[in-house]
Amino acid sequence: MKITLAILILLPLVFSQNIVVSPSTACKCQQFLSENGCNNNTLGQCQWNQKNQICQQASCGNIQSQNDCLISKKNCYWNGQNCVAFTSCTKLTSKIGLICPQQNISCYGSNTNQCQSISSLPKCITFQIGTCGQQGGYAGSDGLCTWDTNLKECIVATNCSQLQNQQVCNTYIQNACIWDFNNGVCTQATCTQLQDQQSCKFVVANLDPNQVYPCFYQYNQCVYASQTLFQTQDQCQTNTLLNYRWIGTQKDGICVSCTQQLFEPANKCACEQFMLETACNSSQYCQWIQNSCQDINCNQIYNQLQCSMNKNCYWNLQSQNCQNFYSCNQLIAVNLLTCITQSRNCPNYMYQTCYSSYGLCSQIYQSQCDGSITNEGICYFNEAKQVCQSLQSCSDIIDENICNQISKLCLWSTVNNKCQQLTCSNVKQQKQCTFVFKNLNGTDIQICEWTNNSCSNAKNILNLNEAQCSSNSQFTYMYTGSKCVKCFQASIILPEQCSCSQLYLAQDCYANPLCNWNGQICKLQNCLSITNQELCIQNIYCQWTEYGCSDFQTCFGLFGSTPKDCISQSINCPYSDGVRCQNKYYYSPCQSFTQVSLCSNQLGSDGLCIWNKTSSSCQVLSKCNQILNSTYCGIYEYVCNWSKDQCNQSTCSTFTTPEQCKFYYQSLNSFTPIGCKWNITTNVCEQIGSMLTAYNSANCYSNSAKTARWSQTLSYNGVCISCGVKYIPNPSKCSCQQLISQINCIQNSLCYWSQTSKSCQEYECSALPENLCVTNMKCMWTTKGCTKFTSCSQIKGESLDECLSYSLYCPYNPGLKTCSSLKDFPECEEHKTQDTCVGVYGTGKNICIWDSRIQRCTKLHSCTGQGQLSCEQFSLYCAWINTTYYGFCQERTCANYKTKYSCTYVLSITDPNLIQPCQWQNGVCQPIIIQQATDANTCFTNSNGTSRWTSDSQTTGFCVPCNLPSYAVQYENKCSCSQILNQSECKYPFCNWSNNQCVQNSCTNIQNQFECSQQRYCYWQISQNRCNPISLQLNFCTTLKGNSSLECLAQSINCPSTLNGVCQDRSYLQTCSSITTQAACANSIGQEGYCTYNNQACHVISSCSSIQNYNYCVGLQHFCIWNTTINECTTITCSSISEKENCTYIFENLNSSSIKLCEWNEATTQCQNATSTTLTNKTIDSCHLETGGTYHWSNTQNKGYCISCSLDLIKLPKTCQCDQLTNIECLSSVPKCKLNDSGSCKQNECINIFDQGNCSTLPSCMWSNQACVQFTSCSNLQGATALDCLAQSTNCPGLSNGICKSKSQLSSCSSYQTASQCTLGIPSSDGFCYWNNNGCQQMVNCDAITQLTQCDALYRICTWSNSFNKCVPFKCQDYKNQDQCTFVIVNFKNSYIELCEWQNKVCQQYTDKYFRFDENTCYQNSGHTYSWVSDEAHGSRCQECYSLLIAFTIAIYLIGF
């Protein structure tokens, strides 16, 4: 119940000066507050009980006149001389001059007949012409009867002119009609026709005994009484037939009615919402001033009821006028009724003081009990128990008058002789057919309409005219000029409630008016069967038009000039383009609404809106204290509450009764209910720890605002689980520690900004609500709330729904019958029900959709063919395009967003984790690269939280992705562009296909900032927003400005450091441990490698296990993987990859990037390390792609070989032979060597080698006919290119007429005439060749190479110096990581190696005679030129191999950019 809006009103509904009373609503004796009011001026009806200090019903003998006796129709009757006790009508007999109604008005009969109860009579319609009222004065149970000559039937007479019998006219209803002897007709009696003071009492209007107009004798004439005429208690009570009583003191008091309109509707229009002057002024709490509707001034209110109802005013009992209200202390406090009579703001009385807070029914005296409002609801006095208690049902009231006094809510049924809830169909008079309250303890109204001569629920409120729209809705609706629409649309702020198909229990299905229970399952109601407009528009599948409820088609087919016009027809269409309705993507932010009437309660793109009178602008409604109106505050009853004269945030403790104690919402723009539960021990409403176990099957649905349901079909088995669609976050989203901007931090719901450390921190699990807890990989929901995740095996669930209610990463495994890891999440086709099909988004690259035609869950392959509802269900992937007659669905592009504020991003239908950012430019929404975002908000919002701003300034900084490596992953053996032979492998942005060959892409062709900044030879020019080539010879980085490494790296990969706002090269990098702030550390680079911030310090990421954040872990793809079983970041292995499409390759080390290949085993359906057949199975389409760009196809034809880009023929001296290796080293040299049964290492035979890659590198073998055989002659091998020949044997680097040739048959470098022939590293008789401006040249030394990419491709031999801007020999110190620090190759001819060692965090040349590795690393880390020697005399050591030169294949790691 909306207690804050329940208004006790002590006057009639009509604010006219002439008052109307009724015997059926007269005050009961116990309602008179004092002895003086009880004993005097109550027409003998009451007497004061001195002992109990209450007013009681007096005996009939105390009543002296017939009129006064008739008032007490239930207890007394007039016998002609005295008023005596009454039992029943059948005990009375009609007499001449004293017919039955003149003895007791509830009885019928004339002449000398026995009296009957009027309620026992037939209805008028049953009488024929001979027995209808005009012949014999007969009445029906529904009123006085008369014959209608037009209809030719007996009807209920509603005006005196219908009575044609003089006797009936004058006597049947006293003071109702008077016979006009001049004209011979019956006319309405008026007060002015009553000639003397004694007869000047009342007149009955419209032949209705319940419409009595009191009269007042003044200045020797009888006039209609008004409230202001009654200045004394005597006048107040006598002249109103005891319908009024005196409130206050004898001196300072007022006459008020016992008839109580208990509630003001909960959702009355705020003044600023009225768009028309007439509706504004008729509301009586507003006035039209300067073309806008504003709150009325108190001094302009002259009616006590109107004044006391206005929260800004109070009625001053001393001065009898309306004044501004400030506090309850202004009021005269005599009793509870005195307080409420003066102001609705003060509904409680204690200790001679009026209070703004509500009390309890049990605290109220009997005289003030009936109809009072407390925290418990409506109060009534229980006669049997003699206590004041809360009213649970109208039937609890046993007194007719008390029942009828609770107007618009309860009604006394004369047929059933009991009190019942009032409905539109109970209303018998057309002018009373306006509205009723829907619920006993609620304040929502049901609008009524008069059709076919009866009152019923209004079917189409949209079509009400301006007058009906306001009055019949009690100003909860307003007229927009074309439609009657609700001022406060509750439907626009509904939380994600359960769909009908999700409800497994019949009781829950019945509780949802949109659903039908068919005996087994719960189904959504058919739109055509819905007759209620509000229910219709809340159903996303329905729409409401002038023809009623029908299936929803499209917003564009509905007409409305304002948002309220549209939302009144369908919840799917909350906006308008001025003529037609539109969907949510036409939203504008609150600030765009410049008119008061369009702002209030409007839903903008940034939340609910409210008009700020101080700034005269529309603002986002984010906090309850922004609401200054108690009525407006009460709209959001489970978010806000009105107390202490202001609107406050609600919590569980706000609710003071078990009935209210259900849930609350934490904010006005976050509608996830927080559960509450009543503590029967402390009688306090408390917040629950977990909905899962706190609620049972009986209250799960109701106490969760219908957002949760019981998980099983049996009420005694299951848990309470949330219904809403669950979204697994994009794994590329920024982690809290990566966010530098406070704005970005606040935008991430899992983070908070620490004012102490000025950094973004992650909430502990215990601080997260359920909806955020289950989406956090580190947390899980339990019976104790949100706790740290342990393992999926700890979660107990019997279905997918139950398991996901604890963690979205632990779906149900039907085979194991337990909650399992995310890899077991069902495919779309495995979902058996609609709610599980679309219940979770983000579980993989497939989007699931329920196909209602075949009743199956399938993959969403295309937006084409989807209806508007389905299209908008996947609105980030699909867009509905309106046409003249209907429309169609297509895959969304940025251009489909029609407003600046909806223009954010688009998701790929093939992979939901792929984001296309958008930005509003030149009046349209256009696609951008996120690095082009110009402020912190756009950077984060338009990338779906996957990018961050590089500073804490809103506009000064750069937008960079969070979980892409801060510098490009540089594969040590990645192909250079000149090595690529076919167009499909020539990939942008590194390479470009031109003139039938693959060449290095020019900087000016690169449009993407990130891609540009990763090219060693390019940089992104911020001022011009374009990619330029690096042309300066020295200190290029110092030409760039940047306050952090992120800002510098956003411009060039060459510049990962900064000093005093100027970018610097790698030589200025700090160690991770020397970085002191989280903002500088997170995802940055140190001298040792990647850095991370843990335990208040910056550390190098030495292993994946040191990474504690899920997003950070998955951002290091191919390095690390999040183990969902133990919920930790671990080093990736081929076997840890669960999806076939990802089973391609991994990086062998976190801070270096040599690639290790994987392959999918179809038999075991698992990913495994590459085998000898992996490369053989590659095709022209998969070779380059599935090897991370480190292999390429050997020709342009489908028949060819997948060969390594590191293949070369450099001869190194002193390479070890097999028999020089230890057993451990022998095993690492497989398949070149093998360990035989005797334990010695021998060279392997060709027939024992099964892969082409190893076979072709051995001088004694060659690859032929898909097998490794003994090498014979190059002429036995054929190919389309020289690479085809090398792929079969490194002995054969040449080609002539399709026949492979040996090295001795090669020509010199100068024989290659074009760049396409002279690819980098191609062999010749001179050695290796490369192309420059002078043609094809022999590689002699590094200095001669002028292209950066060619230089960097010669890994371990040459490297590009940023300081000198030239190619120089590779040195040990060029290795930046310890695991790379092994050896370098010196010279292109007569090559040898220099060993390196890691000392003091720097790689340097090794100077000792013996290389001090261990047996496991000696051979591998020396380029196969050293082996482990066990020598007792000199000690075990790593020593060079003194042997004959053998052909040695070493990798020239080609790093492509």
Q: Which short descriptors sum up this protein?
A:
1457 residues, alpha+beta, three-stranded antiparallel sheet, 31 helices, 95 strands, 12% helix, 25% strand, disordered N terminus, PSI domain-containing protein, PSI
Structure description:
Helix content is 12%, strand content 25%. Among the domains are: 92-209, no CATH class; 478-586, no CATH class; 588-621, no CATH class; 630-712, no CATH class. The protein has 31 helices and 95 strands. The strands form 43 sheets. A three-stranded antiparallel beta sheet has the order 7-8-9, with no helix packed on it. The chain has a three-stranded antiparallel beta sheet with strand order 12-13-14, with no helix packed on it. A three-stranded antiparallel beta sheet has the order 23-24-25, with no helix packed on it. The chain has 1457 residues and is an alpha+beta fold. Keywords: Glycoprotein, Signal. This is PSI domain-containing protein.
Describe the strand arrangement of the main beta sheet, using strand numbers: 7-8-9
* Helix fraction bin: 10-25%
Spatial separation of the terminal alpha carbons: 67 Å
* Mean pLDDT figure: 82
Q: How many helices in DSSP terms?
A: 31
